[in-house]
Amino acid sequence: MLRKSPRLAFLISLLSLLLRSSASAPAPHTLGAGSSLSVEDHARAFLVSPDATFSCGFLEAGNNAFSFSIWYTDAANKTAVWTANPDAAVNGRGSRISFRHDGGLALSGANGTTVWESKTSGAGLSVSLLDSGNLVISDPSSGGGGRTMWQSFDWPTDTLVPSQRLIKDTTLVTSQRLTKDTTLVSRYFYLYYDNDNVLRLRYDGPDISSIYWPDPYYGVFPNGRTTYNSSRIAVLDDTGVFLSSDNLRVVASDLGHPGVKRRLTIDPDGNLRIYSLDPSTGGWTVTWAAMAQACSAHGLCGRNAICVYQPSLRCLCVPGHEMVDRHDWRQGCRPMYSVPNCSQEAPPEQRFKFVEVPHTDFYGYDVGYNASSDTFEHCKKLCLEMCSCAAFSYRPFEGGGVCYLKGFLYNGYTSPNFNGNIYLKVPIGFDASAQSVSARSSEGLACNPDGPEIVQGTPDTFRASRNNAKWSYLFAFAGVLGVLDIIFIATSWWFLSSKQSIPSSLEAGYRMVTGQFRRFTYRELKDATGNFKEELGRGGSGVVYRGVLDKGKVVAVKKLTNVAGGDEEFWAEMTLIGRINHINLVRIWGFCSQGKHKLLVYEYVENESLDRHLFGTDRTLPWRERYRIALGTARGLAYLHHECLEWVIHCDVKPENILLTREFDAKIADFGLAKLSKRDGAAGDSMQLSHMRGTTGYMAPEWALNVPINAKVDVYSYGIVLLEMVMGCRVCDQTTAGGERLEMSQIAQALRQVVATGNVVPLVDGRLQGQFNPRQALEMVRISLSCMEDRSNRPTMDDVAKALTACDDEDEHPAYR
């Protein structure tokens, strides 16, 4: 048996003491290069803010999964307020966070692969966790407290902490999480600024995308918001007030209590809430929520499913339907009966009947709407005779009611406060007696059984009953809504009827408010165009004519060719297209569908199309206008791909379909026509078309591969257009010195050389005579090259718009010297 020497025993004791003191020592708030933390040591924080309010380090994100996050130190459950890798947790063995010697903060997985990094570099940098909860990488040598190279406040995940701003280029997204049965709940809910400068909540799932807050039923102004702002900034302050530049102001119920630690989080159920930390327990209390009823959020229960309170939030299938996936309600429900074919010769009343589901509605996807004078029987008749009508919603009022015909059943909810019913269109032999929603309530699965309850003030200041609070809120809201309606209508009338001089853009905005999407007769459009006399242009989808409506409004009328489906299907598609509204998209005023005549009525854009200005020999488009057109086109396509109620793939992006206003603002034309063309079907965000669409020279390679088409075909086409704006000529016309046409692979290789060397001058349109911004030109070439990559490697149009916006920081574009 070995005996320890006194000296060895002393050294072991000293080492043990040093290790214990090191483990118990508080984490620093600033670290220099070379610092790191292993995931096996996750019990220790990587950094702690100077006042110890915030900590950052590894947090458990599942079974043997961890994330690098920031949290309130005193919170019992260490709820993350920021996460470096919200989409990809790292392994509980071998992973590490490191502040490298090159000045980059990096998170590596078990195999050493970098899964996230700050993308900073430089000598002498430091990383600090501030008292605000902001993780900052700075250069102390810059003076004045150091220059910030990167900060977590610029990259929010699902939470804002006090003083952290949400701006136009940032978004809060629900975090991924594992449920009790290990089902992954995806990041489907977003808080962001829309193109109309309004702060909104949107569900963006695999099948549908729709805005649900502020309540889309009322519109912007009745909800107390305004579109007339350009700052797009929202912030939660230290007192519990959440302010937004669109006129939103909300307060936490514990407003005025000093020293309260709060956070604003978009939760996995799609609701936006303010939480306050209880210092005695370390738990969180909800002190404000965007929606008092969780079922107001969209997408919670999937297609043909209803969100109900029993008493917690639950999902149910409508009568005659069953769950698609017992572990995921977002997959919705499918019918347990065969739907009769619409082409059968028997009258519809002999093939269909209706099942009533009381106090229930499905928001959106209306294929028809009749005003308050409609009767129940007429509404029923309309749905019965319309093949695409799956159900109708009827809301009775004195002297009539409102009728909504539904093409799809999404965003369903049941509430005893809803004054209306949904009527499902089912086969005549369907037995409804055993299929009522109430009879099937036990089959509902709880979506959020432990949903948080809002604490309405402290016990000594507010003890009003929930019922009284509800009715007080409703009466107050109704009063405010009425006043806003009167003010808004009167103001709009005054502006439109007065002779005062106002900006044309503002006047156009007011006129758009009073305009409406309408259905024209063929005779009306024939008269408006003078029997289709003045042709403006033509393409694969039809011919465009100039027209003047009876009130003197100049419009563009397109005669469509190769339109699939009958009047009902065309009406359904136009109902969706007619809702699309963006400053960089040509506005659609209405349509005509009479037998073989299918026409669209657009706003008239007076400055012709981009190709006339870009490729014409008698004019040179200045660089400033080129860049603005490139940015506007990117924003318009990003709206179509990411923000519409239904995703829209253009399928024919080219200069001829980019129209220009008098101020050279871009407006994309012919969007939505791919869905009107003859097609085989659609699935999710991809669709299989029966024939190739687009124009030679702008078509993505996958068109020839017979694979489902997605939005990346537009990204490819946009990349070609972007390069043409730099060069001032058609890409497809480029040839070698020997006169042979260049292949796209050769063009891509040349672009890589330009990006690598940074020498963009030889590529830029010579007609500009050096008057261009070299930084912007190089960025446009880089983006164009990335758009031509393989489909999986192309950026999204949202990414493209953000990249171009980042370079659009100068009012005057300097000439190259």
UniProtKB/TrEMBL annotation:
Residues 22-150 form the Bulb-type lectin domain. Its main location: membrane. Keywords: ATP-binding, Disulfide bond, EGF-like domain, Glycoprotein, Kinase, Membrane, Nucleotide-binding, Receptor, Serine/threonine-protein kinase, Signal, Transferase, Transmembrane, Transmembrane helix. ATP binds at residue 559. GO terms for cellular component: membrane. The keyword Transferase applies. Its EC number is 2.7.11.1. It catalyses: L-threonyl-[protein] + ATP = O-phospho-L-threonyl-[protein] + ADP + H(+); L-seryl-[protein] + ATP = O-phospho-L-seryl-[protein] + ADP + H(+). Residues 530-816 form the Protein kinase domain. Residues 342-427 form the Apple domain. It is an enzyme of class 2 (transferase). GO terms for molecular function: ATP binding; protein serine/threonine kinase activity. It is a single-pass type I membrane protein. It is found in: Membrane. SMART domains: B_lectin (SM00108), PAN_AP (SM00473), S_TKc (SM00220). The chain crosses the membrane at residues 471-496. InterPro entries: Bulb-type_lectin_dom, Bulb-type_lectin_dom_sf, Kinase-like_dom_sf, Pan_app, Prot_kinase_dom, Protein_kinase_ATP_BS, S_locus_glycoprot_dom, Ser/Thr_kinase_AS. Residues 1-24 form the signal peptide. GO terms for biological process: recognition of pollen; response to other organism. This is Receptor-like serine/threonine-protein kinase. It comes from Miscanthus lutarioriparius.
